[in-house]
Amino acid sequence: MSNLIVHGGTPLRGRITPSANKNAVLPVLCATLLTYEPLRLLGVPDITDVRKILDIFRLLGSEVQMDYATGTLELHHRETVFDAARHRLPEEMRSSIMLVPPLLARFGVARLEDNVKGCTLGVREIDPHIDVFRQFGGLVERSEGSLLVRCRGPLTPTDHWLDYASVTTTENFVLCAASASGVSTLTNAASEPHVQEFCRFMQMIGVKIEGMGTSRVTVHGGGTLGGGEYRFDEDFHEITTFLALGAITGGDVVVRNSAPENFPLIDRTFAKFGVHITHENGWSRADCPGALKVQTPFTSNVLTKVEAAPWPYFPVDLLPIFVALGVQAQGNAMFWNKVYDGAMGWTTELSKFGAHVYQSDPHRIVSFGGSPLTPAVVESPYIIRVAIALFMVAASVNGRSEIRNATPIRRAHPGFVENLRSLGAQVEWTSEE
Ligand SMILES: CC(=O)N[C@H]1[C@@H](OP(=O)(O)OP(=O)(O)OC[C@H]2O[C@@H](n3ccc(=O)[nH]c3=O)[C@H](O)[C@@H]2O)O[C@H](CO)[C@@H](O)[C@@H]1O
Ligand SMILES: C=C(OP(=O)(O)O)C(=O)O
């Protein structure tokens, strides 16, 4: 694990182009294994999760040419071999679970390690995925430290209704449905921008999908899939992160943003902390006239709140970024994580900066912002966006801070430190790992 050393207090200024969204890139990479045709992917980020998936492709015998300097990936899964006893799917990342449907389609078997939990946000269920595999005719059995999923023939189309709008379960449903001959429908489907982007890629390789971006998705599966060229969109998480960094340091950061239509709720959430976002000619800017300040609600006896839930609610992965704004803003705010039951414990680390945050239950915290903060040495849990939130607070405080175990940032944000330096930040990693 590597730490971030930050000399904070410098307002960040400049223009920046965000990278692709890890949570779109990874399901797309898994989906590539469904086709035998060559593909070219553009804008592939140099992040550790991508490297892990490409490593498994190489083990399977796929042709993989990745040029990280240009973000161009040439991929051809022409002749592949999978040995469930020998080949291990990448651990410590949630997306491995989306390799199961293409492995089933190709080899009739997949083995999933127990440790595919990704960020330590509390329970990351696999039962909804198993329900999906079984609905399509998959056979699931427990083996030591892993699950074995098999199918005795091609998957069969199905209709399914999810308990909740799970991102990766929706993607797994679409992946299974693409290889099942016939029509499959998912109700209570997730609709996040990355789920929609993944569906657009599936359409490009020849899968007919109706209802993408809504809660009911219909997939016409079983056709022969093609190849082609696909360029990834910009990551709304990274766009929001850079805008928030500009605001928390009192600077002026302008970020490339080709999809401002995804931002109305995110913009209103910034406004709750006194940050005004504008979108013009494909660029977004955070303007913060004066100090950060929590908006006072008109309703009496309530707190200004940020309520995170499946899209189109405020995105849960952005919640820590706004907690960082909350502790710097004058006033009190409530942050409500409706998705995860164990994603708020990290906020005790904020007290090391002198911040006052109270956890009222596993899902909710209240920030009492505006107290003067001092530099600190803090520990990040294995949560990408929390390492960033701790960095944000450090960057806004005069003096030397250290974010220990900040490596998870490398799972999602390529060249994070280099990008920040280009905006004027004084920050470095303690090691290259
Ligand atoms: C690789 C990838 O794409 N990871 C993302 C994906 O993970 P992932 O697909 O694992 O997240 P899910 O949408 O399945 O939700 C995660 C967990 O939250 C709980 N839950 C979720 C929703 C709900 O309405 N009720 C409920 O109880 C469940 O315990 C579930 O296991 O979506 C999450 C939620 O946006 C994001 O944090 C992750 O970054
Ligand atoms: C939680 C995240 O990723 P994962 O689901 O892979 O842990 C994330 O991208 O913030």
From TrEMBL:
As one GO molecular function, the record gives: UDP-N-acetylglucosamine 1-carboxyvinyltransferase activity
Kindly indicate whether the keyword Transferase belongs to this entry. yes
Pfam families this protein is in?
EPSP_synthase
User: Top-level EC class, please?
Assistant: transferase
Record flagged with keyword Cell division: yes
Per the record, the pathway is:
Cell wall biogenesis; peptidoglycan biosynthesis
UniProt entry keywords in alphabetical sequence: Cell cycle, Cell division, Cell shape, Cell wall biogenesis/degradation, Cytoplasm, Peptidoglycan synthesis, Transferase
Q: Which reaction does it catalyse?
A: phosphoenolpyruvate + UDP-N-acetyl-alpha-D-glucosamine = UDP-N-acetyl-3-O-(1-carboxyvinyl)-alpha-D-glucosamine + phosphate
> Which parts pass through the membrane?
none
Q: Where is the Enolpyruvate transferase domain?
A: 7-420
Q: Which domain of life is it from?
A: Bacteria
Where found in the cell? Cytoplasm
Q: Which family does it belong to?
A: Belongs to the EPSP synthase family. MurA subfamily.
This chain's protein is named UDP-N-acetylglucosamine 1-carboxyvinyltransferase
Q: Which organism is it from?
A: Rhodoferax ferrireducens
